[in-house]
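Lecture 7, part 2: worked example. A protein chain together with DP6.
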Amino acid sequence: MQEKAFLHTSSEITIDKGFVTWESPSNIALVKYWGKKEHQIPANPSISFTLSNCKTKTTLSYSKRDIGIDKYQFEVFLEGVQQDDFKPKIATFFKRIEQYVPFIKEYKYTIETSNTFPHSSGIASSASGMSALALCIMSIEKELNPNISDSDFIKKASFLARLGSGSACRSLEGDLVCWGTHKEIEGTSDLFGVTYPHKVHDNFKNYQDTILLVDKGEKQVSSTVGHNLMHNHPYAENRFQQAHDNLSKLIEVFKTGDLSGFIEIVESEALTLHAMMMTSLPYFILMKPNTLEIINKIWEFRKASGLHLCFTLDAGANVHLLYPAFEKEEVLDFINTQLVGYCQNGHYICDSTGLGANLLVD
Ligand code: DP6
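Predicted complex, written out as structure tokens:
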């Protein structure tokens, strides 16, 4: 499938105004997206668990505006407070998607958004936020083109979300989503996310993700800058190949329910992601001392208990603890007795895998 498949077909229908509300979750990558080409094309395939509790809810209100003014007209509110610092990212998003949804120029917008997790938690809201916004825009497209099928609607929403933030294209459905062409996973594309099509063992159903909030501050280096540092990176080609290989290995792991195999791949991916940051130029470190304390505690606990707790990291210091639902009680006890002290103000968020975005008001 090529980009041109997502171009808008003009319609006879006109709408003057309306509003729509979608909620969309965050996701946590198991095989990481790190490095991209032009037009938000990933340098390697990735796969993530869609989360359930960490969500963004977005209402998009739109009304016809005078044409002739070139710039997009919109206001953004987070929890009711105007956020002008969100505007450049959204303006870039509008510019990138305009050729696929040209009607966006005809309206002015109010974007009202809220997160179920604290904005200052260091949890990336770009995946949930951009996917919710892309879905709202697709709801306008559906008003104009009611014949669009549900599967084309989701595919194009994921395509648009990718243009807002790469990882956002993996947030629309659940509970495992792949993005980026992989030769052993049919239907995968660099242009949009697809639900993982192969067999998944019950061990991975309702998988738990407890997010330890080690550092709630703003990241010193944004993901976008980090991705760009993969250009001319000395280890880039090997890293991209490793992501393909790890996804191939995961197919067997998911099929057989091999939790030890899962842990090895997921932890290696997290550490490789941070190794790429440490070996780029300029180099940088996003882990904090408590991130390493937690990792060492997890390894000790796993050895002593024989349980299947592992960690992954995003582009930040927070630690995602991943474990099967049937080990929840023992792991929560371990978190509360041994890990909570490493979290800023003792904060952590309990989440688990989920099924993706929901339309709330149309
Ligand atoms: C480390 O999707 O935030 O979370 O496309 O520039 O918006 P942009 O980057 P973004 O990168 C996320 C990278 C990651 C790994 C992952 O989610 O796969």
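The helical segments are 87-97, 126-144, 150-164, 223-228, 236-256, 259-278, 289-305, 328-339. The radius of gyration is 20 Å. Keep this in mind for problem set question 3.
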